[in-house]
Amino acid sequence: MTSKFETTDVDPDLLNAGEVALSVLFEFAQMEHVGPQTGVVAHEENLVTLLYESLLPGYPGWKWAITVTKAEPNAPVTVCETHLQPGEDSLLAPEWVPWSKRLADFREAQTLQAVQEAEAARKAADQLREEDEVDPADDLLENDFSDFDDEIDGVDIDLFNDNEEE
Q1: Which residues are CB-contacts of 1 (< 8 A; sequence separation ≥ 6)?
Q2: Whole-structure pTM over 0.70, yes or no?
């Protein structure tokens, strides 16, 4: 751990404050979620953070950080702060992106997709028109289906007319 001060310059009571630090940590963390001590960070002569491995499910690589201090040389050790902090290999949430930016990116992607789909449809239609073997009656883009006036889905409805005389 990186420190501004060498641990030899720090009050030894702070370096050995594990019992006090853990007693406060166990007020809100379960014992089975706290692993062994992994380090010490000395911020000042009288301000130290003790680090413990986190065994919380879903927090691999995270550390419990308990910052302790002494107001005066003969004062008891007190806890300033406790929290979880990510380690070097911890899984972190991605950087936050404002909604307006995410929405703008989404709209841009939708517009690009629509342009690409329209271009692909134009190319397919042009290719169909350029092919000589396509009969204009079979070309779906050119056929208005007006030659099927008396048929529904290719079925001659006159065959089923009960009123028609034989």
Answers
A1: 39, 40, 41, 51
A2: no
